[in-house]
Amino acid sequence: MVQENLSKVEEKIKEACIRAGRNPEEVTLIAVSKTKPIEMIEEALACGKREFGENKAQEMKEKHDTLPNDIKWHFIGHLQTNKVKYVVGRACLIHSVDSYHLAEAIEAESAKKNVISHILIEVNVAQEESKYGICEEDTLELVSEVSKLPHIKIDGLMTIAPFVENPEDNRKIFSKLHKLAVDIAAKNIDNVSMSALSMGMTNDYEVAVEEGATYVRVGTAIFGSRVYQSKG
Ligand SMILES: *Cc1c(COP(=O)(O)O)cnc(C)c1O
Predict the structure, then answer these.
(1) What structural domains and CATH numbers belong to the chain?
(2) What pLDDT shows up at residue 232?
(3) Which residue's CA is the nearest one to ligand 1's atom 11?
(4) Continuous H helices in 72-129
(5) What letter does residue 91 receive in the DSSP assignment?
(6) Where are the beta strands (DSSP E) in the chain?
(7) Given pLDDT bands bounded at 50, 70 and 90, which one contains residue 229?
(8) What is the pTM of this model?
(9) Would you say residue 230 has pLDDT above 80?
């Protein structure tokens, strides 16, 4: 099932690229494996998939430490400063930095482990109150502050769009994030790249690709729906 789903999603990404006149190689599909068992990740590994996304620090640590070390782990969830130690040195990219406070914690842990942490700044484009992410107006300032931290490299921006019935409704959100990245790139801030745009999930990744996504984060369409057990 995983294999079929993966090829379907990859095909749809390709088609969206063609519609938008983009090179499919610009888009990386992150298989979001949160809550899913090792066996399902192994099925995806058998198809050649090497990029996975997790949103809980300890779960990512356990999977990272169990599975082959050529896997690229993307940390996509809200990150508390006391969990930074599990993620730094294990994630190839932290998609969800939305405060200077969190960036400082990543800087300290990265210095301690003598690594450079690649990050994205999470922007709450939709201005949803329930969501994490910095507002558009404050993004440039956060980018320029974080850019001064020597063990952090900003690769671009990330957003989580709302759940909508019609994915077309999120097009304006994706195009806004893209425009914001272009505007910030034009400032030529040292140590900052705006080439990565992480946007689009199962429901809307095709629209996100049409609007310039370089990373799409797809869980349900690959691994099936998630069952959350109560923690008791
Ligand atoms: C869970 C999650 C996804 C994947 O969601 P699906 O709708 O299952 O594709 C993508 N991004 C983030 C930040 C997530 O937490």
Answers:
(1) 2-223 (3.20.20.10)
(2) 47
(3) 217
(4) 84-87, 100-113
(5) E
(6) 28-32, 51-54, 72-75, 91-97, 117-122, 152-158, 192-198, 215-218
(7) low
(8) 0.97
(9) no
Quote the ligand 1 centre to 166 CA distance (angstroms). Answer: 17
Distance 214 CA to ligand 1 centre (A): 15
d(CA 205, ligand 1 centre) in Å: 11
Side chain identity at residue 69, one-letter code: N
Q: How far is the CA of 53 from the centre of ligand 1 (A)?
A: 8
3-class secondary structure per residue, 20-36: HCCCHHHCEEEEECCCC
- The structure tokens listed for 57 are 């620090």
Residues 6+ apart with CB under 8 A from 46: 3
* Ligand 1 neighbourhood includes 164 CB (under 6 angstroms): no
Does the beta carbon of 36 lie inside 6 Å of ligand 1? no
Is the model's pLDDT at 138 over the cut of 50? yes
Is any ligand 1 atom within 6 A of the Cβ of residue 218? yes
pLDDT digits (tens, 9 = 90+) for 59-109: 999 999 999 999 999 999 999 999 999 999 999 999 999 999 999 999 999
